[in-house]
Amino acid sequence: MASSEGQLSKLGEAARTFLATRPGLLIAGRNTPAASGARRDVLDPSTGLVVTDVAEGGAADVDAAVAAARATFQSAEWRDMRPLARERLLHRLADLIERDADILAELEVIDTGKILPMARHGDLVIALDSLRYMAGWTTKIEGTTIDPSFSYIPPIRFSARTVRQPVGVVGQIIPWNFPLVMAIWKIAPALAAGCTVVLKPAEDTPLTALYLGRLIAEAGFPAGAVNIVTGGREVGMAIVEHPGIDKIAFTGSTAAGQDIQRRAAATMKRLSLELGGKSPVVILEDCPVPMAVEGAAGAIFFNHGQVCTAGSRLLVHRSIYEDVVQGLAHAANGMVLGEGMDPAGQMGPLISARQRDRVAGYVQGALDQGARLLAGGEAPDRDGFFYRPTVLADGTPSMTIFQEEVFGPVVIAMPFDTEEEALALANDSCFALGASVWTQNLAAANRFAGALRSGNVWINAHNILDPAVPFGGWKMSGYGRELGHSAVELYTEAKSITMPLL
Ligand code: NAD
Asked: Is 378 a catalytic residue?
């Protein structure tokens, strides 16, 4: 492991100590090396330097993790645990995350490149809110009672009821853009429902999940309730194909989601897939330009555009189009790129050199297809995987950049003349995850809210999520709703029980 100081000297003692432990996998509550002995370097995207390495799991480690999760799922300790006791464990975990929030935020910064205030006051807050919200569901998983007729059994009256029971051992595979938040969004509803978990963090961002694993053990969950296998796509595939896993919850690219769907068919696993997006931001004629600029900038540049709901297609009424795109370009040009621990930094790097090059390729493709560059369009001359916030104007629906997910700080704008045209453009996508409409006109806002074909619609807002509000996609953006009441349904199966009334 070739390491160099980079940002490490800016981290607190506890985060540095954790990195120095060179974490292993979490299997049956123990910090475990990979069966193969393999390890993978973890890079700081702000500098490209190695900050530690972690165990690189494989199929044998998935077997061990599934065995541990299954044993715990079937154990009396977990199976018979009262709902309130599970709730208490989840709150205890939240207390520990609160205690160590500064450490987790720093690990998130060094692993993802996001700036510290965002990690500390964004990711950590969302993760905690989500965990505490889900803790409350343990005691509210309910069924129904039914008065059936059974008219072909005339002499006997029956009673029926439904119950919801944990789906079993769940495999959860998450991406690199919000590593801790994604881990909590996955494990919290699963544990609340009484499932046990095999979690695979993204290969680029294993750190906060592994730290979380230690807090899960400290909180007092039974060993094996949550197992964490770090590694690449092969680990994900082994989880998807494993006969000992009952359900897969996945967040990531549509291509990986399609592969998972195919592989999961053999064992008929339950699936929830939160996939890619190409979310439209629709600015109507009456929207004040400063509000439009601020809204559009937040929609695309939040988390460096590495957000599945990033507002990457900007549709603006022609009467204010040039003012809005020029204002957005001005905002983009004014953003200060910086290392995550640099207090002056407003936007960090992308996750990897591969992702930066992918983003650059999309921008070049858009320029080749006739888009007009107003800001950015290049990687700055510095270490790390930075890419300048980029504003492209004069898009057309046939451009690749109008149709495919870039997952970077790149927006393509185009004008429209009528509401009908705006709606048609907004809905002209194979994706349907998020969409926003910006206007002071309540009737128009409601017309768009009704007609936008998307899992999530915001009015005069974008990218805001709350644990009580269901979240998920239509079309190629996947299916299943995380958060809200629906999250519990994802992790339970319904059972009908019928008996004669004696
Ligand atoms: P990815 O979808 O390939 O990876 C996400 C996670 O899935 C990782 O943990 C990865 O190891 C795992 N994985 C990949 N292929 C798998 C498979 N066939 N079976 C099981 N697990 C698998 O994403 P990426 O390669 O890191 O990024 C590529 C693109 O995906 C991005 O540019 C972006 O467009 C998109 N993406 C979307 C989201 C989102 O939240 N919608 C998140 C990350 C990436």
From this structure: no
